[in-house]
Design brief:
The protein has 20 helices and twelve strands. It is an alpha/beta fold. The chain folds into four domains: about 130 residues, Orthogonal Bundle (N-utilizing Substance Protein B Homolog, Chain A), CATH 1.10.940; about 35 residues, no CATH class; about 55 residues, Sun protein, domain 3 (Alpha-Beta Plaits), CATH 3.30.70.1170; about 190 residues, Vaccinia Virus protein VP39 (Rossmann fold, 3-Layer(aba) Sandwich), CATH 3.40.50.150. Strands 5, 6, 7, 8, 9, 10, 11 and 12 form an eight-stranded mixed sheet that branches.
Amino acid sequence: MSGEGLPARKAALHTIYRVNQQGAWSNILIEGELGRTRLQGPDRGFFVRLVRGVLERQGALDWALGLYLHRSLSGLEPWPRELLRLGAYQLLFTDVPEFAAVDTTVALAKDLVGRPVSGLVNAVLRRLARERAQLPWPDSRVDPLGHLSIRESHPRWLVERWVQRFGVEDSVALCAANNTPPVLTVRTNLLRTSRRTLAATLAEAGYVVRESGLTPEALYLQGEGDLRTLPAYREGLFMVQDEASMLAARALNPLPGERIIDACAAPGGKTTHLAALAGDQAQILAIDINQTKLSQVKARAARLGLESISTMHGDARRLGEIAAASFDAAMLDAPCSGLGVIRRRPELRWRRQEGDLEHLQGKQLELLAGVATAVRPGGRVAYAVCSFEPEETEDVLLGFLSSRAGRGWRMHGEPQVLLPHRDGTDGFFFAVMRRKQV
């Protein structure tokens, strides 16, 4: 096979296949593919656009393709299904010329699965190309939920929840934000440099840099290239992190001399931020149930020059058994649905089911109870999740505070909800609670 843009399409197809058929995560695969440098120049950006676009628009693509198939798309073998999605995305959501979108997809089909499948791909995509301007999208006046679900490509159950909570206008904006790549945000290591100095350094490296108004550490970047190759990265002057996470760490307000737990700590973004906020003068214990991921915490602390962090392999639900009432503060960024970071992992919207929320809530309550037992009277806990669904946020707090484990605890300030379309950050929730003095 040869042809302009074909290497990017082939890499994108294999990536999409692994995400949809093998359960891989797109962000990890994209980073790995770009790190291998097999793609050069414009192919790199085109590859990312194709992977993200197909996963983001999968609901709309499947609906449109279903108009031209004699059986459901789900009834096809995996490779033909992903080939059709790749071609349809280019026809419906990009300015790629029709002949390029169809011919390259057919060429990929011939190479991967042979002529019979390539004939199906060719026929369906050519008909879609002819009729794409007249597709019978659901009417927003007749079926507003169906219209929003298909046009903005989100599961209907999720759209229904959001419309009920936020209204139609905000839900449209939220879905649109989820289909927009997030701004690249880095956190300045203020123990080693200033934000202004780092901004100048990154600008010299070719990035367009803006300072955030939400936090004093954050910079927004635009540009190409792997940040990890920069001297400023190797010297520990910054790390990539969304501002929602920065705000959650700041809410805990870690102080020099305090003993602080970061539960479910890996890969260490909040751990290292807590240490930096305390001037590297606190005692930070990072605990995680995944031994392998704890090595990432150590590596990040070392690169950033932080010496106040130690790690422990263990289950945070059992913290009270080993460290009862002995810490001043704790951070719990609990495992959750991740529905607040759909814009980073577009496949999440298709993997989650509504029933997952209550299932996850049970684990979140257990973790919060375990972490709380390790905090002394007068101490505080920050609870955070990259979700804004009630089952994982307010309901967890209410469940904890009304439980035996939550006796003696009270809210410390108002919980904070961050929404991508409103705040420009990941979707996030965090709240701080304080334990009463004995």
